[in-house]
């Protein structure tokens, strides 16, 4: 098939027959508007006409969210006037840190970001476009949340890890009142979104190159459910309760849970319009003070279009 496709891309002067290279660029662009970004980039390798069509603003405008100008406005010091729609899509499809406008990007920063991967470790929130569907995804670090007794090292600690996109997670050593809450205000494009908390039972580290979990402080989660809650500025309100360590499960299932990151679904919310921006408030709490609890890592909250949640990362379990 590769050989025949190669023959099709040759022009008339070589084969005496029309090939893909003879298709007008505007016709190719019309076809590309029905393909996803990965398919477009793959086909752009075939010939000059396909490469030209793959750079068309009309093609990439159809892949960007309708309110992408509002998304760019979230970034202070933005200078995107000279960027093509393809460059803007490329920029937004990589995680872009933001935290209430405290992180600025100059044109030099944007150019460096597009040229090679540049780590930004001090951003507490990240937003990006899904590279296949072009839809908005978001992740919020525990650093951006309010943690009850979070400043008391007897109860909470922070430790660095490569398993978090923010390179740091919060570790609950022992508390009686457990509560983690946060909020975000953002011009989400119209869609149905799922909000999840990413947590991990036990404290993990590497020993001799192997991942090892320490469950010394893990206790209390089987004595009562954790209450997950979300509400939006337009009146949507959802509450769910799950046992983080459910003693009704068999030992094999419990061991799998204790050794992996778990994403607990708080619920879904609907955005019908991007203006005004939607404010989302979320929390997880276990405030039954009859017993202590501890040995839990809290990494982040993710907000992702609901039908994209099926793409699971390796080592992450979904619980709903």
UniProtKB/TrEMBL annotation:
TM annotation in the entry: none
Highest taxon in the source lineage: Eukaryota
Annotated PROSITE patterns: FBOX
Pfam family, one: PP2
Residue ranges annotated for the F-box domain, each copy included: 17-63
Entry protein name: F-box domain-containing protein
Organism encoding this protein: Anisodus tanguticus
Lineage: Eukaryota, Viridiplantae, Streptophyta, Embryophyta, Tracheophyta
């Amino acid at each position: 098939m590769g050989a025949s496709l190669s023959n099709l891309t040759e022009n008339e002067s070589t084969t005496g027959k029309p090939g893909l290279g003879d298709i007008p660029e505007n016709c190719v662009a019309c076809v590309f508007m029905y393909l996803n970004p990965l398919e477009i980039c793959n086909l752009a390798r075939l010939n000059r006409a396909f490469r030209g069509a793959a750079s068309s603003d009309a093609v990439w405008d159809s892949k960007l969210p309708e309110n992408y100008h509002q998304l760019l406005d979230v970034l202070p010091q933005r200078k995107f006037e000279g960027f093509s729609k393809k460059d803007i899509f490329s920029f937004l499809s990589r995680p872009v840190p933001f935290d209430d406008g405290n992180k600025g990007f100059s044109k030099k920063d944007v150019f460096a970001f597009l040229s090679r991967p540049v780590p930004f470790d001090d951003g507490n929130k990240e937003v990006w476009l899904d590279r296949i569907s072009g839809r908005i995804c978001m992740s919020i670090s525990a650093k951006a949340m309010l943690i009850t007794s979070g400043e008391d090292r007897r109860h909470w600690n922070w430790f660095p890890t490569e398993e978090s996109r923010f390179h740091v997670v919060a570790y609950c050593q022992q508390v009686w009142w457990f509560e983690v809450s946060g909020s975000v205000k953002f011009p989400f494009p119209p869609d149905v979104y799922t909000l999840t908390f990413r947590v991990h039972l036990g404290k993990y580290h590497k020993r001799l190159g192997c991942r090892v979990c320490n469950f010394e402080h893990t206790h209390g989660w089987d004595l009562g459910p954790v209450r997950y809650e979300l509400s939006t500025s337009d009146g949507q309100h959802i509450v769910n309760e799950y046992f983080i360590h459910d003693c009704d499960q068999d030992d094999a299932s419990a061991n799998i849970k204790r050794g992996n990151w778990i994403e607990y679904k708080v619920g879904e919310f609907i955005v019908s319009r991007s203006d005004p921006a939607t404010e989302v408030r979320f929390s997880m709490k276990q405030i039954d003070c009859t017993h202590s609890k501890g040995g839990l890592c809290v990494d982040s909250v993710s907000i992702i279009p609901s039908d994209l949640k099926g793409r699971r990362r390796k080592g992450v379990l979904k619980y709903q």
